[in-house]
Write a structure and sequence with these properties.
The chain is mainly α. It has 22 helices and no strands. GO terms for molecular function: oxidoreductase activity.
C-alpha cells in the first residue's frame, strides 16, 4: 500500500457510526455546528506518516551523543536563556529554537489569557475532564495508544503518567506561561523533545511497529487529535458538567492550544481555530482508528486503579470512594459503548455525583465572581499538582 493513499478505513464500522450518529460525536457536531464529510480527507491523511523532523534531529545531535542528564541540562539552558552567540551548537538546535522563538503573526496574548482563565476558573472540573473524558476516552482509539505500549508506559504506572500530564497541563495554562523562556514554554519544548526521543527509540528497538497501519510513532495527525482533546473535548466535558463559558473564553482555549501545538512542532494547518474546525478535523482522524483492544483495556484499568495506588489519600476507604467517583464521571462523560469496550465496571447510583456537580456548578456560577473563581481554581489545581509531585519526585514511586 502506498503510504500516501491511506483511506478512511473504519468509516463504515459500527464504533465509528455509533460515535458520530448517536454518541458524543453527534453531540460534538451539535455543539460546534460542524459539517462533517470526507472531502478533505486527502488534505490531512498524509500527516499519519509525518513527524517532527526538527525535534528528531536535535535528539540525534544532542541526546544520542551525550549522557542524558548532560544533554537535558544543555537544552534546558537554551530554553531558559536562549543560545549564546559565541557558543558552537549543532545546526539542528539553532533551527529548533529559531522556530520556537519566532512569534507567529496570528498570536493574540489577550486570547491566551482568556484560555488560561477558563482552565483555572473551571477548578477541579478541569482535572475531572482531562482524566475521565480526554484521557480515558483517548484509550478507545487503539492505534493512538501503540506508542504507550511500545515504550512500556504501563510499567511506569498510572500515578507517574498522570503526574507528568498534570505537570505539563498546569504549567502551560497559567498566566503568561507561554512567554519565551517562561515555564510553560519550557514544558512545551521539553515535551516536544521527549516525543522525538520516544519516537526514535520505538523505531530503533520496537521491531513489531506496524507503520503501515498505525502510522509513524507519535505522528503529526495523532498529535493533532491529542491536542483537540485538550481543547474541543475538554470544552465539551466542561459543558456536560454544567460549566458555562463566554465566546472569548472559548476562542481563548483554542488559541492557547494552537500556540502550544505550534511550539510542539505540530504543522499549523492541523491546528484548529474553533470548535467547528476541530470537530471536522477530528471526524477525519477517527476514521482511521479502530476501537479499543486489549492494550486499551489495560491502560484504562491502570488509570481507574490509580486512585487505589495513590498515597495522597491516607485511608483505603477514601481511595475506594475516589475511584468510585471517577467511575461515575467516566460513565457520565463517555458513551456507554466506549465504557463497555474499555470494561469500565458498572457501579450503583452512577449519575448521582455528576448530577450533583451540575447543580453545584449552576449555583456557584451565580454566587461567586469570575475573578474569585479563577483564584480559587488556580489554588486548587496547584495543590493537586503539588501533591502528585511530592509522591512521584521524592520517592521511587512506580
Amino acid at each position: 500500500m502506498d503510504r500516501l493513499t491511506i483511506k478512511p478505513r473504519f468509516k463504515d464500522s459500527p464504533h465509528f457510526k455509533d460515535f458520530w450518529e448517536k454518541g458524543n460525536g453527534k453531540q460534538l457536531i451539535e455543539f460546534s455546528g460542524a459539517e462533517v464529510s470526507f472531502k478533505d480527507f486527502d488534505k490531512f491523511s498524509h500527516y499519519f506518516y509525518h513527524v517532527d523532523t526538527l525535534g528528531d534531529e536535535v535528539v540525534r545531535d544532542v541526546y544520542l551523543v551525550k549522557k542524558f542528564h548532560e544533554a537535558s541540562r544543555e537544552i534546558e539552558g537554551y530554553i531558559r536563556n536562549g543560545i549564546p552567540e559565541a557558543e558552537d551548537v549543532p545546526e539542528s538546535v539553532k533551527n529548533l529554537f529559531t522556530q520556537t522563538q519566532q512569534i507567529p503573526e496570528w498570536l493574540d496574548y489577550s486570547l491566551l489569557k482568556s484560555g488560561a482563565e477558563l482552565c483555572m476558573r473551571s477548578n477541579l472540573d478541569s482535572l475531572i475532564s482531562l482524566r475521565d473524558y480526554c484521557l480515558m476516552g483517548g484509550y478507545d482509539y487503539a492505534y493512538l495508544n501503540k506508542p504507550l505500549t511500545a515504550t512500556e508506559a504501563l510499567k511506569k504506572g498510572a500515578v507517574k503518567r498522570l503526574s507528568e500530564t498534570l505537570d505539563f497541563w498546569v504549567n502551560v495554562t497559567r498566566y503568561d506561561a507561554l512567554e519565551l523562556h517562561a515555564k510553560g514554554y519550557e514544558f512545551a519544548v521539553k515535551t516536544r523533545l521527549i516525543h522525538s526521543y520516544a519516537r526514535l527509540s520505538i523505531k530503533k528497538h520496537y521491531r513489531q511497529w506496524d507503520a503501515e497501519n498505525w502510522g509513524e510513532p507519535i505522528n503529526s495527525w495523532d498529535m493533532m487529535a491529542t491536542y483537540i482533546g485538550f481543547s474541543l473535548v475538554f470544552l465539551h466535558s466542561l459543558q456536560k458538567l454544567g460549566n458555562t463559558f463566554s465566546v472569548e473564553e472559548e476562542k481563548g482555549i483554542f488559541h492557547l492550544w494552537k500556540y502550544v501545538g505550534y511550539l510542539l512542532g505540530i504543522p499549523e494547518e492541523l491546528l484548529p481555530d474553533n470548535k467547528k474546525q476541530a470537530t471536522e478535523y477530528f471526524y477525519l482522524w477517527t476514521s482511521v482508528q479502530p476501537p479499543s483492544d486489549k492494550d486499551s483495556i489495560l491502560l484504562a484499568h491502570s488509570l481507574l486503579n490509580e486512585s487505589l495506588e495513590n498515597p495522597i489519600l491516607k485511608f483505603r476507604f477514601q481511595r475506594k470512594n475516589l475511584r468510585y467517583l471517577h467511575i461515575c464521571c467516566t460513565w457520565f462523560l463517555l458513551d456507554d459503548e466506549v465504557c463497555k469496550r474499555l470494561q469500565i465496571p458498572d457501579v450503583p447510583n452512577r449519575k448521582l455525583f455528576p448530577k450533583t456537580k451540575i447543580l453545584i456548578n449552576t449555583i456557584y456560577d451565580k454566587l461567586v465572581s469570575r475573578d474569585a473563581r479563577i483564584k480559587k481554581g488556580n489554588k486548587s489545581q496547584m495543590k493537586v499538582l503539588e501533591d502528585y509531585l511530592k509522591i512521584t519526585k521524592n520517592s521511587n514511586f512506580h
